[in-house]
Design brief:
Elements: E1 11-14, E2 22-27, H1 36-39, H2 42-47, E3 53-58, H3 62-66, H4 70-84, E4 89-95, H5 97-108, E5 115-119, H6 126-134, H7 152-167, E6 175-181, H8 188-196, E7 203-206, H9 212-224, H10 227-231
Length: about 230
Amino acid sequence: MFLPAVNPMVSVDDDFGGKPRCVIVFLPGVGDVATDFEEKGFTEAVRKRKLSVDLVSAQATLAYYSVGTVVERLDADVLKATREKRYRQTWLIGLSMGGQGALLYAHDRPKEITGVLVLAPFLGGPTLTKDISAAGGLAAWHAPEKVKVTDEDTTILELWRWLQAVTAGKEPGPKLYLGWGTDDELVGESNRVLAEALPERRRFPVPGGHKWTAWKQALDFFLDDSDFAKGCGR
């Protein structure tokens, strides 16, 4: 049974002490919960590198996406609190559905965050991905004008339109990093299409499928070599 979209959205904080410069907000995938980031080794991966960072794991479950309030509740119940602490940098790390959520938040509120790491983000069904590939990739795709979002399909279409604009430097957006398993049959093709539009240093393809083990590998690369690693080290 999936958890309901409670108001306010719950989060799990992991403060490392002192006055860190940065904060990471983790967003889970379908069927996952906020505490999974501790259980799967994500928080320990950050902790052992002794970075200047606090961690927040948001209980942004499927129900929030279903009712269309994930961005609203993230902002009001989670990101508002991080803004009040005046971190220099705010990063979102979302996996699968949470990757989509991180991108949706960045789309709506690009000035609120420094960067995003999306791990195997869900970017819609194969039809649109095939259309983008057939056009020669995201840069060559003839994107529509800004899409009025009314349902899941228009949400995904607008997200891809925005990703094209952001990766081309035509609209504001955060620093965008992508990690995915090269054997991922669920989102692998859409992730490869997005990866082709990103600088090589901002993409982390790793062996594996749509699993935490692959996402953990990509996270490790990100924590060791990225703008986040440079800006949030002690």
